[in-house]
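Q: How do we represent a protein-ligand complex in a form that can be generated token by token?
A: Start from the inputs.
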Amino acid sequence: MHVNLYEKIWMYAAAGIIVVFLAAMGYTTVGRAMQPPSHVETIDPASVRTDEEFGSPGVTLHEDGTATVVIQAFMFAFLPLEIRVPRGRDITFRMTSPDVIHGFQIVQTNGNTMVVPGYVSQFTTRFDRAGEYLIVCNEYCGVGHHVMSATLIVEDMPGPSGSSGDATGSSDGTEEPLGGTSGSSDGEEGSPAGTGASPAAPEGDR
Ligand code: CUA
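Then emit the structure tokens for the protein with dinuclear copper ion bound:
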């Protein structure tokens, strides 16, 4: 069958574009650790504020050095407003909304998820750079959307059972609790994407 030259060029170009798109998706998924929320956990939105877990949001530090952060995202704020977590350890964020869909994005990191009423959104990541990070809602949720923000403070904390030597022994063990450069584990699962950027998130950028 004879195929016109221009027809051929368009066919190959279309096929090429599809390959590029698939490769980009594969790269962001594997190389940049972009994943959909890992599990489906439901919750009655009407009971969020009285829920045993989400009714009293906050940070829980575990014995192995990791931490769990429970967050309520609602019109138009996050609770808690200020979140303090240890540097270089696995931090699991769990959040839900009692009203409408919100976003939860930790600026300059790969921490970013939708918060959908009726569901618990969860992801685990770690922060290699100490400092202050801005958390913003990135799903339009109403007239106060633009003021919906919170602060994440990443700081060095003493390791489990008082020793800082084996702080990350339970995870991949490659991260020293003190020192270490931010770019070293870029692209590892769950590590923030920032490489050499300044530690402080731009506060005024809302
Ligand atoms: Cu919450 Cu926009």
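Residues 38 and 122 are 7 Å apart (CA to CA). Confidence is low (pLDDT under 50) at residues 162-206.
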